[in-house]
Amino acid sequence: MSQRMSLAGRTVLITGAARGIGAELARQAADAGARVALLGLEPDRLAALADELGSGHSWAECDVTDQAAMVAAVQSTLATHGAIDVVVANAGIANHGTVAMSPPEAVAKVIEVNLLGVVRTVTSTLPAVTASRGHYLLISSAAAFTILPGMTPYAASKAGVEQFANGLRLEVAHKGVTVGSAHPIWITTDMTRDLKQDLGTFRENQRRLPGPLGTEVSVEDCAAALLDGIARRARKVFVPKSLAVVSALRTLILGPLFERVMLAQARTMVPQFEAEVAASGRFFGEHSTAKI
């Protein structure tokens, strides 16, 4: 669909809306005239944001890994707003630590929130979005087509989100529903700040990454790019746009030549990274909602 979709008067449901990308996207969507349904795990922050946005918006405490909670939140949204036109599956977390040193529950939690949370968000909203011939934006990441040691569960989950979006797009197109996946790089959110604060190895790796892979984008610019992607019903949104080239070259990036370079760096980097995580005494950032 080439015609832009106006958000004025439409209902936009956003998961992970209490902070970061989700909260800023809610602000910009509301400024564009949308009615925003905020879902997340931090009721005080959600209530404050809804109050900031003004009348006509709603919030619900909801764990995206809990199907019953998702269904209840969706029903509440429909009762309040009458429809759901756009769903942004944004809830996500990142763990600190390699697979070898992390508790299995921490590794599984990342997959559960980032991938299964998207699945539960989509399945619980699909009847409503189908009825409105609406749009999904599933938040993947540049990690879907790149990899860094220490971010294995995160990268795996985000690659899964991209493929879920690709398949879902084909399944619902004949019903007038469109599906996009978004691929941001490092955004100035609490998750990125926690990584930089806790892990000197992360800061050094980010500095060494070539081209757009090392770019840090403001949360405001990221939300603006996502909002534009929603309006265009875009199938892919890259933040920054130059990541489209990196995505096109993923076969090379994930191939044996690049891996050889990474293996050489990993010999010294991984032990340092593991030591820093152990010293921090936690496997998720200070602001993460994950409790392990």
TrEMBL record:
Name used for this protein in its record: SDR family oxidoreductase
Taxonomic superkingdom: Bacteria
Gene3D superfamilies per the UniProt record, alphabetical: NAD(P)-binding Rossmann-like Domain
Keyword DNA-binding: no
NCBIfam families per the UniProt record, alphabetical: PRK05872.1 (NF004526)
Alphabetized UniProt keyword annotations: Oxidoreductase
Family statement: Belongs to the short-chain dehydrogenases/reductases (SDR) family.
Location of the Ketoreductase domain: 10-189
Organism: Cryptosporangium minutisporangium
SMART domains: PKS_KR
